[in-house]
Each structure stands twice: as C-alpha cells, then as structure tokens.
Design brief:
Blueprint: H1 2-12, H2 20-24, H3 29-38, E1 44-45, H4 57-68, H5 81-95, E2 105-108, H6 110-122, E3 128-133, H7 139-145, E4 149-154, H8 165-171, E5 176-182, H9 194-206, E6 210-214, E7 239-244, E8 257-260, H10 263-276, H11 282-294, H12 296-320, E9 332-333, H13 344-355, E10 357-358, E11 360-361, E12 373-376, H14 381-399
Parallel strand pairs: 1-10, 3-4, 3-5, 5-6, 6-7
Antiparallel strand pairs: 2-8, 7-8, 9-12, 11-12
Helix pairs in contact: 4-11, 5-11, 6-10, 8-9, 12-14
The structure holds pyridoxal-5'-phosphate.
Length: 400
C-alpha cells in the first residue's frame, strides 16, 4: 500500500529540471578518486589537504568552556567583534596592515565561503575572472556558479609554476575584472618574493584588475617570510585578503575563515552572508579567538614539522624518479610522472591498485596538469617513508 502510494507520488511530482550550470560543473577530481579509496583496505593516502595534527587542546578547551557557559547562539552577521578585533591586531602585527573591524572585516564559514561571497558580490554577467592553473579545485566552478567566466593563466614546471607577469598581461581582456591568486599555492606549494609580487602588481594596476588573494597557507612559508598581497603599494584598496584557521591551526572542522577588504565590498558580501549563513558557528569563532591570542607557538611547531617532512619527501621523490621542484610553502608537492606512464590518471589508478597508495591526479587542478600528481605531506614521516617505498617499487616495476 505504502509502496504503491510512493510510486503514485513519484509519478505525480517529477523533479523539475535542475540547474544546468550546476549540472555542467565537473565533479571534483579529488572526491571521485577518494570515494574509490574509501572502498579499499590498507591504503596509504597522501591525498587529503588536511593537517594530521589535532587542534591544539587549549583552543578546543576554550570553545568547550564557552559552550558550557551557554554561548551557543547566533552571533552578529559580521562575526564576534572580539574576533574581528583580534584579526585587526594580528594582521597589523604580522603585516603592518590596518583593517577596521567594523567595516572592513567579515567572519565566514571557512575561506571557502569568503571566496564564494567575494565572487557573488563582484561578478556581473559577462565578467571574466582570471585564475592561475594549477589551482585549488573550487576556484573555477565557483566563478561559473556566480555567473562569471573563468579565464586561465597557465603556469609551467619550467618556471617553478609561478605566474609570470607577461602571461597575466597577455590573458587579460576588456572583460577581465579580477585575478584570483593563491600563494603558498595548493597544489604546487609555490610562493613568491616581494620583487616577483611587485612585478605582478604592476600588471594588475595597468590592467585595472581587482585581486582576491587567498593566503590560507601564509603560516607555512618555509624559505622566506610570507609577504601579503595587500601590503603592496595601493593594494589595500584593490585587494580582498582571504585567510582562515583550517591549515595553520589545524582547525579544518571548525569552519572559520575571514575576509578583509574595502568596505563597500565587505558590506555587499555581508548582505549575501546574512541571507545565506547568518553567521559562522559561534564555537568556531571562540576557538579562533583563542587561536589568535595564544596559538602562535602551535603554528610554529607544526610549521617546523612540515618543513622537516618537505625536505624528506622532496629528496625521496626526486631520488625515485618523480621529479619535483622544492615547494616554498603549504604542504604539497607536485611531481612530474615518469614518461612510461600515459597520464596522471593511469599513474594514480595503477598505483592505488598495485601498491595501495593514493595520490591526487594533477588534472584535478588544471587542464595542462596531466603529467603531474599532487602529494600531500600532511602525514607523518613514517607514513611518507612507507608510501615512498611502495611508490619506488611501483615505478621500478613499470620502468622494467
Ligand atoms: C587554497 C585553498 N583555499 C581555500 C581552502 C578551503 O579552506 P577552508 O577550510 O577555510 O574553507 C583550501 C582547502 O584545501 C585551499 O587549499
């Protein structure tokens, strides 16, 4: 009887045609691959871009105390004033930047939401947004969802995957409105000196672009201090600075990020945010306050450990035939696969099948990346060692 009713309901109410923009969006290459990994045993995964550390305990404890004393409500749409003030202090001390916590800062659900809001607040139909490749998997789909067109600036291994000013300039058209920039970069780990950033800044000024600068890995710059884009001359006004707590403080699940930028843009982003999210989670915001006030030693300890792992894995991969440059930051390497493999997909699938090691095919990060794979070193040295032994065996077998 119930089944017959369900059938009747199904027949009477077919789903309407779903959004063609969403339907045409490719599924994330990372998700597809890791759905497969989840069905297998004894896999060493070097796939996920997530710290393997727990959130430092004092940060969790502070949030627990807040929950215990009844802080479980909505906050202001912009986020707790105490957190916005802590961010103001932090970016002033770190970069000498001065953002007004009332009008120039918005607390979001991770950098993910901040990026999405920025696009929705910036894009009008027909606008083009420049984005470098390889890049973080969400950048292009979210530009399309917001009604814009992504325009790719390719980077190449020969140049250490850096965006070259001439490539940025030659890809601009009259419709180009903004440049999405991420450094240290996921997936290449590339980062930039002040001179290199200034060369890019001069093209950006000349082409009259706005910049969305995703600096979520700013704590993890190994070879020189990170230089934030809005410190460059005139860029506080033409740049939206995005950052968050997921990577530097091992707080991915707390879902807290923030945007600092010109007040008219922040106001528009806040308007969209108030209709969609209302606010970021209050416990996450309290955890973030504690992270900023008392978490700097934790980030340094984690950074030192990632540095040790970077040096280990880069040497090891180059020794076993996966050629890669030394990434300046973040926790990824982006090696080239040996010539005997036809593609990144073949390499990753066979490696998973034969040796039970999961890495992400490079094509998840861009159209010209099918000779690369991404390896995350947010894993212990023991795990990295065991995985690289398996990879070495795999490569030797295929090279015959
Ligand atoms: C470059 C980049 N931006 C943003 C994010 C998402 O960060 P959040 O956890 O703050 O949403 C990631 C996550 O991997 C990332 O690599």
């Amino acid at each position: 009887m119930k089944a017959a009713m369900n059938r009747k309901i199904k027949k009477a109410y077919p789903l309407p045609k779903l959004s063609s923009v969403a339907e045409q969006m490719p599924p994330s290459g990372i998700r597809l691959f890791f759905d497969l990994v989840l069905t297998m045993d004894d896999v060493i995964s070097l796939g996920v871009g997530e710290p393997d550390f727990n959130t430092p305990w004092h940060i969790s404890q502070y949030a627990i105390e807040k929950i215990e004393t009844g802080f479980t409500t909505y906050t202001s749409n912009s986020g707790l004033m105490e957190l916005r003030e802590a961010i103001t202090d932090n970016v002033r001390k770190t970069y000498g930047l001065s953002y007004d916590p009332v009008r120039e800062i918005l607390i979001t659900v991770g950098v993910s939401e901040a990026y999405d809001l920025a696009l929705r607040a910036l894009i009008n139909p027909g606008d083009e947004i420049l984005v470098h490749e390889p890049c973080y998997v969400s950048y292009k789909p979210l530009i399309s969802l917001a009604g814009g067109s992504p325009r790719v600036v390719s980077t190449r291994k020969e140049n250490g995957f850096k965006v070259l000013p001439k490539d940025l300039a030659s890809n601009c058209s009259r419709r180009s409105k903004a440049f999405v920039f991420n450094y240290p970069c996921n997936p290449t780990g590339v980062t930039y000196s002040k001179k290199e950033l200034e060369a890019l800044a001069s093209v950006i000024r000349e082409k009259n672009l706005f910049v969305i600068s995703d600096e979520i890995y700013h704590h993890l710059s190994f070879d020189h201090p990170h230089i934030s884009f809005p410190i460059l001359d005139g860029f506080k006004e033409r740049c939206l600075y995005l950052n968050g707590f997921s990577k530097g403080y091992a707080m991915t699940g707390w879902r807290i990020g923030f945007a600092c930028g010109p007040s008219p843009l922040i106001a528009l982003m806040t308007k969209i945010h108030q209709y969609t999210m209302l606010c970021a989670s209050v416990m996450g915001q309290y955890a973030a306050i504690e992270a900023l006030k008392n978490g700097s030693e934790d980030t340094v300890e984690m950074k030192n450990e990632y540095f040790r792992r970077r040096n280990y894995i880069v040497k090891k991969l180059n020794d076993i035939g996966l050629s890669c440059h030394v990434p300046g930051g973040a926790f990824y390497v982006f090696p080239e696969i040996p010539a005997c493999f036809s593609s990144d997909l073949e390499f990753a699938n066979q490696l998973l099948k034969e040796e039970r090691v999961a890495v992400v095919p490079g094509s998840a990060f861009g159209r010209d990346c099918s000779r690369h794979i991404r390896i995350s070193y947010a894993y212990s040295v023991d795990k990295l060692k065991a995985a690289s032994e398996r990879i070495e065996r795999f490569i030797k077998r295929h090279q015959g």
